[in-house]
Amino acid sequence: MGKKYYDRLLDEKLPLYLETFGAVLIEGPKWCGKTTTAGKHAKSILKMQDPGQVKNNLLIADTAPQLLLEGERPRLIDEWQAAPALWDSVRVAVDESGETGQFILTGSATPNTEATMHTGTGRIARFLMRPMSLFESLDSNGSVSLNKLFAGESVEGSRSNLKIRDIAFLTCRGGWPQSVGKKEASALLIADQYVKSVYNQDIHKVDGSAKDPLRVQQFLKSYARNVQTLANNNTILNDMLPNDAGITPPTMLTYKNALQRLFILEETPAWAPNIRSKTAIRTSNKRGFVDPSIAAAILDQTPDSLLKDFKLFGFLFEALCARDLRIYAEQMDGQVLHYRDDHGLECDAVIRLKNGDIALVEVKLGGKAEEKAAEDLNKLEKLLIDKGFEQPRFKMILIGEGYAYTRKDGVLVVPLGCLKH
């Protein structure tokens, strides 16, 4: 009996894209389920890194790449970046056939040669696939829909099934398909091994240059200590220096770039509306990972240790919320940004849809912090309205456990374990 397949939100969008474009590229970190999901929509599969065929595949890719494209369509080409020549071969094949739904490409790293390849615009559509959201892993009951909130529906009384200890575990477990359904010790071991694989093996394959695993580990630790903050590169560098006196800014940026190309790091861009005032809006990205379990594993955290350090838990919970919000927002063709100005007014997440609608979201584990969050959300809403912007579709505080409800001031309070797209 095979492992249970958990439906992914990508399953809903992929058929439309295959009907529209000649090929679809699914990118994302390794182990996030790209191959399994893509395989559900493919009729033939080429695994470029199949141990028994990898040398032969690479030889064919160098001499006659079109032979690797032969097979029933849609044809899945898994880890295509192992032979970057396949990109242009797919583009040419799509051009020549003029048909849609020909190929699905998956990749867990951006190849060095991408800048010299044809973009594939109009022929190859792109998706970024992340580890599973809580709704996809069936840990969220999905009683509150972001899509419906944008449509004007209210929050009815519902309750998350998750307690704060569950949230701590899900933060450390992450959304890796292999870990879903596993016992706690096994699930946490998967996240730990993922991180070790990154700095011992994967990062060297990005550009073919050797990198010091210890230095990669130190960079990741420094970066993780600043997760969900606006810490600049100098802050991260200075944090590394006591343990690595030889690190230089260019070297650090090389490591950061490699980790971004492996889809390990995912930062939240700033939202900078033109409010025409003397207020200076911060434009720095908020530091983050594609999954909070990476930061937890790097910092040697367990669910029980997080419960003893609520400050760190708060940052990692925000990272968990950021992951899920990105997944849900992108299902609606939206994006997640953050806001902060020099007067201290901030918003953890601004969800912006293509039609210009926005929603304001603050993240709090609970307690008295909710009052300050609601106050900030209402202040930011007033600022925007006073400057001529349309009223946000809703204001929401994402919390760890409890009930979903609407406060008297109109702010929604929603446990992450109730949320879906």
Short key terms for the protein model shown above:
alpha/beta; 421 residues; five-stranded parallel sheet; Rossmann fold; 40% helix; seven-stranded mixed sheet
What does this structure look like?
This protein is α/β, with parallel strands linked by helices and 421 residues long. The strands form three sheets. A seven-stranded mixed β-sheet has the order 7-12-13-11-10-9-8, sandwiched between helices. A five-stranded parallel β-sheet has the order 2-3-4-1-5, with helices on both faces. It has a two-stranded parallel sheet with strand order 6-14. 45% of the residues are buried. The chain has two domains: 10-128, Rossmann fold; 144-420, no CATH class. The longest helix is centred in the middle third of the chain and has 24 residues, at 184-207. The two termini are 31 Å apart. Helices cover 40% and strands 15% of the residues.
Radius of gyration: 22 Å
Please indicate the percent range of residues in DSSP E strands (runs of 2 or more). Answer: 5-15%
Measure the end-to-end span: 31 Å
Strand tally:
14
The low-confidence runs, each spanning 5 or more residues with pLDDT under 50, are none
What is the H-and-E element order? HEHEHEHEEEHEHHHHHHHHEEEHEEEE
- Structural class by sheet pairing and helices: alpha/beta
Using the alpha-carbon principal axes, give the shape.
globular
Name the helicity range. 25-40%
Q: On the 0-100 scale, what is the average pLDDT?
A: 93
Describe the main β-sheet briefly.
7 strands, mixed
Number of helices: 14
Strand order of the largest sheet: 7-12-13-11-10-9-8
